[in-house]
Amino acid sequence: MLETSGDKKKSERTKKKNDIDNKYEELTYKTTNAWDNPHFDKKSINALIEDYKAFMNKAKTEREFIKESVALAKKNKFKNLDEISEGSLKPGDKVYRVVKDRLMLLSVIGQRPAEEGTRIVGAHVDSPRIDIKQNPLYESTDMVFFKTHYYGGIKKYQWLAIPLALHGVIIKADGTKVEINIGEEDDDPVFTITDLLPHLAKDQVSQKVSEAFKGENMNALIGSEPIGNEDDKDRFKNNILKLLNDKYGIVEEDLVSSELQLVPAFKARDVGFDRSMVGAYAHDDRICAYPALMAILETKKPEYTAITYLTDKEEIGSVGNTGAESRALENFIADLCAFTTKKQYSDRLVRASLDRSKMLSADVNAAMDPNYEGTHDRLNAGYLGKGIAIMKYSGSRGKSGASDASAEYLGEIRRLFNENNIPWHITELGAVDKGGGGTIAMMIANLGVDVIDVGVPILSMHSPFEVASKADIYAAYRGYCVFLE
Which of 93, 222, 225, 478 is the most exposed place for a label (fewest CB within 10 A)? Predict the structure, then answer.
């Protein structure tokens, strides 16, 4: 077919437009979908995710996460730092420390002594849940209940009328520890917090959500069969006590010294026809903690001493002796300095190490959900499938309570990820004045460490079933690996 003069002019205009587009292409900031990354392959992604799902199904509480992490550390030849003689660590040595079964630090000793700085990936292993009160057991209307107190920021209605499993520990009068895990096996019973039927919810549904669901009324249903004679007192409650005594050897007073948690009895599952996503309870923040754990286990001989820091209590402010506000990280680095320095040890070495250290605060980010428009600034939102989310600052309103990373450090991390083909995008936690939140970043930054938030974007954060992209989880794993190497 002959080309007409009109076709020729149209072709010239198209070429000119493409030339202009190409001219400015290198000047613009672009994000890419992690699935399109030629350096990622589906086989590697799926292998990591299958291991992650299996781990998540075994580790639904912070104690269980630490227990499973210790087992993996030992399998990978990590040694308990508290059992090592001072001055005996050399490059490539692998050590760990556990604090009160709920916090863990793992390290691979670097080519440089620890006083010259460390590289830290820090994540938290606690998640929103329903805690059992210390004096919880009562009966009412021929049913038996546990009194509860929710932990962390939850939408209370999401935890009603779903199957719940009971996990935790009970310390008996003689100090014996009893571990509890009921509701995870197919033939286990489960528990639930009941909801009001819609037929009688006229008053409830007209209230604000914050007022319609009372925390004090979130009592878990645990039994309804009596024992003894009809005129016996507390015969329904007594049946539960007998069952607990028969199986675990405990009495009611033992519940006072317990840590019992109700968590969703769901398994981690693939989501979508294409299985591109994974849904589970407690992605926040085990979706970052697990890749951080895998990264340190695979680190060999880094230039700087590498540390993975798995902490507790983030969901309630990182308080206490197992939270990021504690001295656990500082004490660990102090011991690494003492065990690797060729100088006379003093706490000046610790302060120098902290000032020269760099950290990725590995915590989740809120992914943009098109079903809830207006909650994000689209230019600065987290997205499913675009790789790891880098967040310069957290906080709320006018950046109140924020940890604000320096431009220099953000530039360093951006360069590291670009050079290693790690897909990333820049984010904030929602639109200005819509809310906000924080991570462990500011606690560690207060020690003098350079810190920035780098984590996985998720949907339905703090719900019983959070959703994330498999490719993003793999991107986080690869990002943490190159940072620690």
Answer: 225
CATH code, 82: 3.40.630.10
Separation CA 48–CA 277 (nearest Å): 13
Among residues 229, 264, 299, the one where a domain terminates is 264
Residues in contact with 121: Cβ distance below 8 Å, sequence separation at least 6, in sequence order: 292, 295, 296, 307, 308, 309, 359, 360, 362, 480, 483, 484
Confidence at residue 21, expressed as pLDDT on a 0 to 100 scale: 62
For residue 218, what are its two tokens? Answer: 């979130």
Assess whether 223 and 114 both reside in one domain.
no
| Predicted confidence (pLDDT) at residue 87 exceeds the cutoff of 70 | no
Alpha-carbon gap, residue 369 to 352, rounded angstroms? 43
Contact 425, 389 (CB under 8 A): yes
Residues spanned by the domain of 247: 129-264
Q: Is 221 helix (H, G, I), strand (E, B) or coil?
A: strand
Half-sphere exposure of 166 (CA within 13 A, CB side): 23
Q: What are the structure tokens assigned to 373, written together?
A: 């428009």
Give the pLDDT confidence of 456-472 residue by residue, as tens digits.
999 999 999 999 999 99
